[in-house]
């Protein structure tokens, strides 16, 4: 549910009135529906609007409101502007969530009755949430890297544990084409994936971005014939 102080701009006058009539800061988030990178920033803006309830936040579709975009020299999305009356007091271009959180905390903390210490704490909390969102976005991208994706210890050529070696062998025997990721090369992915998938062990097999399971489940599905039925045709070697 959107915060009451978060407005999807539909009338240019609403933003102009907010800037002219309020003595406090206004946060303006420029976005575009075709830009995937905006989704991450949008979730951060939503979170900040909830935390800074006395600050007005506007979501502005950049191409729909060309005059506003031109006035703020928006050349790419996402961009976040912090303005007070006619003056820009903060600006972040691109997907830099930590900087967005930092600038909103610095500019809007006092308006929301937060001391410098409290604003820092809110910013740290929001930054932590932003980092979590960053990781989830990355994990989703890794899972979607191939129709069949397996997360293992080691490489497909040189697995570094018995279970990883076993699942690679099973996939090869079934002539299944797959992508893989070595979790030993990235501890953040290794730990994050356990929470993301709610599956505490490795290897982990995904088909069409959905978790299938580990070695035992894959073995059972191969024996029953269920696994090969769910594999996309393009992921079966001819």
Helical residue percent?
Answer: 40-55%
Order of strands side by side in the largest beta sheet?
1-3-2-4-5
Shape by Cα distribution: elongated
Largest sheet: 5 strands, mixed
Number of strands: 9
Q: Kindly, what is the distance between the CA atoms of the first and last residues, rounded to a whole number of angstroms?
A: 49 Å
Tell me the Rg in angstroms: 23 Å
Q: What's the rounded overall pLDDT mean?
A: 87
Strand % is 15-25%
Indicate the structural class: alpha/beta
Poorly predicted tracts of residues: none
Q: Regarding quaternary structure, how should these chains be classified?
A: single chain
Q: Helical element count? A: 9
The helix-strand sequence is EHEHEHEEHHEHEHEEHH
Structural write-up:
- With 238 residues, the protein is of the alpha/beta class.
- It contains nine helices and nine strands.
- It has helices at residues 12-21, 37-51, 66-71, 97-108, 116-143, 162-173, 187-197, 215-224, 226-230; strands at 6-8, 26-31, 56-61, 79-84, 87-93, 148-152, 179-182, 204-207, 210-213.
- A five-stranded mixed beta sheet has the order 1-3-2-4-5, with helices on both faces. A four-stranded mixed beta sheet has the order 7-6-8-9.
- Strand 2 (26-31), helix 2 and strand 3 (56-61) form a beta-alpha-beta unit.
- The protein is elongated and about 70 Å long.
- The mean pLDDT is 87.
